[in-house]
Design brief:
Elements: H1 2-9, H2 28-47, H3 49-54, H4 69-87, H5 96-116, H6 131-136, H7 147-177, H8 186-195, H9 219-255, H10 268-280, H11 286-311, H12 317-326, H13 335-352, E1 365-369, E2 381-384, E3 394-398, H14 411-418, H15 423-431, H16 446-462, H17 469-493, H18 499-509, H19 514-526, H20 533-552, H21 558-566, H22 573-588
Length: 590
């Protein structure tokens, strides 16, 4: 899943100018640390050309990653070597800023090394993301300034078949080892692959760069490049997607495992325990997370009951959920209506941000529909980054597929989470960090990033954005959804729950559409542990806010607190706690 995580970690990507490099250290420990950062970054760019392009490093724009077992084993050994070099550096000899850099890099290497031992590359996709989606999106927002850029892009199009062949070979190794995705979620993945069957170059997303050329490309070169691009897409790229669909349907699906829990995989129990530690950033067990989830579900349920009484609805909880899922007043009639509602909410939030943040990002964002190829098996919305140095800002995606399953009462919470002050604001600020090593600009500890997104939904209540009891119930249904994730994820991957148990639990406790209940459950099955990040991260941020408020009293400033949370970009929760303790101590001295 390394490449899947890449696409999801890139929530920090933006189109801001390149950040200032880290300042030159003033001692040998600092010099050794920054040389380590430079060496790791250099090999990371070489080993992952797609990520290099996203990071505005263009030395490998003609290549796709090499993902054979030999290549990935070499990368794992590199990480162990970097870990040894880091351990040899005296942390106490570093400046405060470099101690933060040290701790963050230690977190990155610790989990890379731990998870590499499970050979996750045998499952390089989830239910709605993966290497094939990354390739489909590789031209989106890409800046192409000259003929050489186009030639590199065409070379990358030619490289798709070999890249897909390596990924399929890795999945065949997973089939032989019993390390596969569950068969029950494969129909949704196959549906996405069916949407990636393009009849011609012009009908594919790969053609987009050839629809507009910069002035620096001559007319003769435009004709030559267009012909070469069309040939590459139709002779290599489109057939690679055809071959992948056949592989999913005829070869992988019959061999996919019949169980759903990660603990049922080879070495599955220690694997899931490691995933829990990684995605929560905490030393907790699956059983502890499960109990936290049950407690949160009970608490939120009481709040939801109170909101139902405010509406004057006559009936029980289940009847209210049915009412919300079926009454046409809660659903947009056209895709444009849904997108316009989302855009209006987003602009309302934009105007309120200065009251809650001292520092705001320069990078803009837009509201866009989820791409049609992905929409049937996709979540209700997501934040999609643009390449650093690209031609557009971030994108808040809203799913306009099956409008009768996209309730408006959750749209405010969704916007707060995916756009502002959630993923876009946090990610764009992280991209504007100065004097930091480049690995920090894409660092996305899930418990921090997703915890912040969920915290942002609750912040919307303070901002006065939930205008009706139905909107407030929508917020609570989203919070309940994340609490249920703690129960459902650990239930399926640790306690032996069936998929039907998970569907029933999520469907009976939230007002999510039943379509989204299904796609979300499939997502948790395909991506064990990640669903735990949201609620566990939010609980920690709320705990730290209460600590700051209780300690500072009248001196507590919500803008200063939020700036302190954002100060270092994405950080693991234990480092965030140290960060807030330092903020509290400094505020006490004022």
């Amino acid at each position: 899943m390394r490449l899947v995580w890449l696409s999801l970690f890139l929530i920090l990507a933006g189109c801001a100018p390149a950040p200032k490099p880290a300042e030159k250290p003033d001692n040998k420990a600092g010099e050794a640390l920054h040389q380590l950062f430079a060496d790791e970054w250099s090999t990371r760019m070489r080993d992952d050309p797609l990520f290099a392009t996203q990071s505005d490093v263009h030395d490998y724009d003609d290549k796709l990653p090499a993902v054979s077992p030999t290549d990935l084993a070499r990368e794992a050994q590199q990480d162990k070597g970097y870990q040894e070099r880091l351990t040899a550096i005296s942390r106490d000899a570093l400046s405060h800023e470099d101690q933060v850099n040290y701790d963050l890099f230690e977190f990155v290497l610790k989990h890379r090394v731990a998870l590499a031992s499970f050979k996750e590359w045998r499952i390089p996709l989830t239910s709605d993301e993966g290497f094939h989606v990354n390739v489909m999106r590789m031209a989106s927002g890409l800046r192409m300034n000259n003929t050489h850029d186009y030639e590199n892009y065409i070379a990358r199009l030619h490289a798709v078949p070999a890249y897909f062949d390596q990924q399929m070979a890795n999945m065949r190794q997973g089939m032989a080892d019993g390390f596969t995705l569950p068969a029950v979620i494969m129909p949704g993945i196959i549906k996405v692959a069916e949407g990636q069957q393009y009849p011609s170059a012009e009908k594919s997303p790969f053609w987009e760069p050839f629809t507009h050329f910069p002035d620096s490309v001559s007319a003769a070169d435009r004709e030559r490049l267009s012909a070469a691009g069309r040939s590459a897409i139709e002779s290599d790229t489109i057939p690679a997607f055809n071959k992948l669909l056949a592989f999913f349907s005829k070869e992988y699906l019959p061999a996919a495992r019949k169980t759903i829990g990660a603990s049922d995989l080879p070495d599955g129990k220690p694997y899931y325990e490691e995933l829990v530690r990684y995605f929560t950033n905490l030393d907790v067990t699956p059983d502890q997370v499960h109990e936290i989830g049950l407690s949160e579900v009970a608490r939120i349920h009481a709040e939801m009951d109170a909101v139902i009484r405010q509406t004057g609805f006559k009936g029980d909880f289940a009847a209210f959920l049915k009412f919300l899922r079926t009454d046409p007043r809660f659903y947009a009639k056209t895709p444009d209506e849904l997108l316009k509602d989302a855009s209006y909410i987003a602009k309302q939030i934009d105007g309120l941000l200065p009251g809650y943040f001292g520092k705001l990002p320069r990078q803009p964002y837009s509201v866009q529909p989820v791409p049609a190829e992905l929409a049937p098996n996709y979540t209700g919305g997501r934040y999609s980054p643009a390449p650093l140095g690209g031609t557009k800002g971030g994108e808040y995606w809203v799913n306009t597929y099956a409008l009768e399953k996209r309730p408006l009462y959750v749209l405010t919470a969704l916007t707060l989470h995916e756009a502002v002050p959630g993923h876009h604001l946090q990610g764009a600020l992280a991209r504007e960090l100065e004097n930091v090593p480049p690995f920090r600009l894409d660092l996305y500890p899930h418990a921090f990033g997703e915890g912040w997104g969920l915290y942002s939904e609750k912040l919307g209540k303070e901002m006065g954005l939930y205008k009706t009891p139905y909107d407030e119930f929508g917020r609570l249904t989203y919070e309940m959804w994340r609490a249920c994730r703690l129960v459902v994820d650990t239930g399926m991957h640790w306690k032996g729950w069936t998929r039907d148990q998970a569907l029933e639990y999520l469907g009976s406790n939230t007002a999510l559409s039943l379509h989204e209940v299904t796609t979300e459950t499939n997502r948790y099955i395909a991506w064990p542990g990640q669903a735990l990040a949201y609620k566990m991260g939010e609980l920690k941020i709320l705990e730290l806010r209460k600590k700051a408020h209780d300690t500072l009293g009248d001196r507590f400033d919500i803008r200063a607190f939020h700036d302190a949370v954002m100060e270092n970009g994405g950080v693991p929760l234990p480092i965030l706690e140290k960060q807030i303790d330092e903020y509290i101590a400094a505020a006490q001295k004022k």
